[in-house]
């Protein structure tokens, strides 16, 4: 595998170029035979090349957003899904371009046929490219090093990706650094779990010296340092972590984008709002909307607005009662709007009001915040920005992502914020809407996990 490692980027580029070229050829044929003649002044050869080039740019941009070119990183099914979303987006933009050039709405049928053909090409390409990639770069045998924190969860996740990793051996740090170094040399990679910093530093430096690949689970401090700015005021390098949340100009731009997109969404989705409200009202004559106190930036409390998906007074007994699978309190209408995420749409009003943003950490219930903060003090860090309708943890997390890992994902968003990151998350939210493994915010069931993690963390820190 090491012999081919240096060619990995080239191999991925060739795979991506093949599927990109096939899709561009399909568009060239459709454009030339169905749409070019509809223009007042049909294009010549140069114009055809320009149209195909623009279509190729659309494909590249959407594939970057959805990860369609990540051969070897995504599974075959996810590759097909990501590629199809990118192709669908590029085809939609191409139709808009054709409409503007021909000055009228043209038949969409040729593009639909092209989309179906492209889907078949994508499916075959994803299967063959993934198989060939795995042949050239088989899974790595790794050594997993752990400390006091439980690793069963991480190990089960690694086992689900045996196309990339195979755990050859696990070692506890109590074995000693000398024996650990001896065992490291027998593997192609090392997975470093949440172990004391001084031990981790020694292992990282040793692996760097021996050119052995390492995979580390980050600590909260790692997330903060990772976003630091390099300063070279003198010959000793410094890393600057501002840690103030978003700057004034970032907040202004984010607010403008929130208002513009929310108003647009409210206009476009108004029919869905009306149909959903009527359906809820007709089912049990209860209110269409449901309000609940949540926490946003700096711990400020506001009332979040959602379509009611449960029976009236679902929590009349008092206290927080999270929804469970097959929860009898969920109405038939509620099952549909929860499955399609329509119940979340009224939060657009919260965004317009300024309580929330389109992108940000999911705002939690007041009692949950108080409980989580007692168990893990770093929980308050995620309230340096406004809560969001969607977020980094929702896009990159899964249904079984632990509470502590969700917190890390939220901090990665806060520490690395940019408008481009917001745009990326918005587009990727479309992708996760149809994935069962996508995650929502925190849940009361995660308290035990948080408690276990924080207690272990305290024990480890005391030993250090």
Describe this structure as you would to a colleague:
It is a single chain. By secondary structure, the chain is an alpha/beta fold. The chain is 55% helix and 11% strand. The strands form four sheets. The protein has a four-stranded parallel sheet, with helices on both faces. Strand 1, helix 6 (152-159) and strand 2 form a beta-alpha-beta unit. The longest helix has 28 residues, at 8-35. The radius of gyration is 25 Å and the shape is globular. It starts with a helix and ends with a helix. Residues 453-464 have low confidence and may be disordered.
Largest sheet: 4 strands, parallel
Gyration radius (Cα, Å) is: 25 Å
The count of strands amounts to: 10
Distance between the termini: 38 Å
Percentage of residues in strands: 5-15%
Low-confidence stretches: 453-464
Helix content: 40-55%
> What structural class should be given to the helix and strand makeup?
alpha/beta
Q: How large is the count of helical segments?
A: 18
Morphology: globular
Q: Write out the strand line-up for the largest beta sheet, numbering strands in chain order.
A: 2-1-3-4
Series of H and E elements: HHHHHEHEHEHEHEEHHEEHHEHEHHHH
Estimate the mean pLDDT confidence.
87
Briefly say what this structure is.
With 464 residues, the protein is of the alpha/beta class. The protein has helices spanning 2-5, 8-35, 45-66, 76-102, 109-136, 152-159, 177-184, 197-209, 220-226, 248-268, 270-284, 332-339, 347-353, 366-375, 392-396, 403-415, 419-432, 447-463, and strands spanning 140-146, 165-172, 189-192, 213-216, 229-231, 238-240, 289-295, 301-307, 356-359, 387-390. The chain has 18 helices and ten strands.
């Amino acid at each position: 595998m090491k012999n081919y490692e240096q060619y990995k980027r080239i191999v991925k580029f060739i795979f991506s170029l093949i599927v990109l070229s096939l899709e561009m050829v399909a568009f060239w044929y459709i454009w030339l035979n169905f749409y070019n003649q509809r223009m007042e002044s049909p294009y010549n050869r140069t114009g055809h090349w320009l149209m195909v080039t623009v279509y190729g740019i659309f494909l590249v941009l959407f594939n970057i957003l959805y990860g369609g070119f990540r051969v070897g990183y995504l599974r075959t099914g996810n590759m097909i899904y990501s590629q199809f979303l990118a192709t669908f987006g590029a085809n939609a933009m191409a139709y808009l371009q054709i409409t503007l050039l021909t000055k009228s709405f043209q038949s969409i049928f040729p593009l639909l046929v092209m989309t179906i053909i492209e889907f078949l090409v994508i499916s075959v390409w994803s299967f063959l490219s993934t198989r060939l990639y795995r042949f050239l770069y088989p899974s790595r045998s790794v050594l997993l090093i752990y400390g006091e924190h439980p690793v069963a969860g991480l190990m089960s996740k690694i086992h689900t990706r045996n196309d990339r990793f195979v755990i050859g051996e696990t070692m506890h740090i109590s074995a000693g650094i000398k024996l650990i170094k001896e065992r490291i040399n027998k593997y192609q990679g090392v997975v470093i779990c949440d172990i004391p910093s001084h031990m981790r530093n020694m292992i990282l430096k040793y692996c760097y010296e021996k050119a052995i690949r390492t995979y580390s689970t980050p600590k909260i401090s790692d997330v903060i340092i990772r976003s630091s700015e390099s300063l070279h005021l003198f010959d000793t390098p410094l890393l600057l972590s501002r840690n103030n949340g978003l700057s004034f100009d970032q907040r202004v731009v984010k607010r403008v984008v929130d208002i513009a997109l929310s108003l647009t969404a409210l206009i476009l989705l108004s029919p869905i709002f009306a149909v959903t409200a009527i359906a809820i009202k007709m089912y049990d004559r209860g209110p269409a909307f449901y309000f609940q106190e949540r926490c946003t930036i700096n711990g400020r409390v506001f009332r979040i607005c959602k379509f009611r998906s449960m029976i009236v007074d679902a929590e009349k007994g008092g206290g927080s009662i999270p929804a469970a699978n097959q929860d009898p309190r969920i109405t038939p209408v509620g099952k549909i709007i929860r499955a399609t995420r329509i119940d979340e749409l009224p939060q657009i009003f919260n965004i317009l009001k300024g309580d929330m943003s389109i992108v940000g950490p999911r705002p939690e219930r007041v009692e949950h915040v108080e409980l989580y903060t007692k168990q893990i003090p770093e929980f308050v860090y995620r309230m340096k920005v406004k809560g969001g309708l969607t977020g980094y943890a929702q896009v990159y997390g899964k249904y079984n992502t632990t509470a502590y890992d969700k917190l890390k994902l939220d901090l990665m968003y806060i520490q690395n914020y940019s408008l481009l990151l917001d745009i990326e998350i918005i587009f990727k939210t479309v992708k996760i809407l149809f994935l069962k493994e996508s995650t929502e915010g925190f849940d009361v069931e995660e308290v035990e996990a948080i408690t276990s993690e924080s207690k272990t963390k305290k024990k480890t820190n005391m030993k250090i």
